[in-house]
Amino acid sequence: MTRATPHPIVARLAARRRVRRIPQTVMARRLRVSKATFANWEQGRHEPHLHLLTAWAELLGMRLDVVAEQAPAHQLELLREAS
């Protein structure tokens, strides 16, 4: 199966999760999604809704608006439309 490229915001959150050594299963449980769903987000197969991105960032001690500042505006708008 071909691996998709995750959205830059998701990639930053995934990198932070790995640095903090938080397992995907723990993050998935805290976000109330399955581990498979969470893994699909990080692998770029699916994108989480904006409210879940916000919660994910908060669980990592980050603010989504700060993470998003580094992403092109049109990419953040695509996430808003998907919510």
List the helices and strands and how they pair.
Blueprint: H1 8-19, H2 24-31, H3 35-42, H4 50-59, H5 64-68, H6 73-82
Helix pairs in contact: 2-3
Provide structural commentary.
This protein is mainly α and 83 residues long. The protein has one domain: lambda repressor-like DNA-binding domains (434 Repressor (Amino-terminal Domain), Orthogonal Bundle). It is built from six helices and no strands. α2 (24-31) packs across α3 (35-42). The longest helix has 12 residues, at 8-19. The chain is globular. It starts with 7 loop residues before the first helix and ends with a helix. The model has no long low-confidence stretch (mean pLDDT 86).
Number of domains: 1
Question: What is the 3D form?
Answer: globular
DSSP strand tally: 0
Return the CATH class.
Mainly Alpha
Percentage of helical residues? 55-70%
Beta-strand content estimate: under 5%
The chain-level structural class is mainly alpha
Terminal CA distance? 26 Å
| Number of H- or I-type helical stretches | 6
CATH topology: 434 Repressor (Amino-terminal Domain)
Tell me, rounded to a whole number, the average pLDDT: 86
Would you list the SSEs in sequence order as H and E?
HHHHHH
Secondary-structure arrangement, i.e. CATH architecture: Orthogonal Bundle
Weakly predicted, low-confidence segments = none
Rg value: 12 Å
CATH superfamily: lambda repressor-like DNA-binding domains
Largest sheet: none
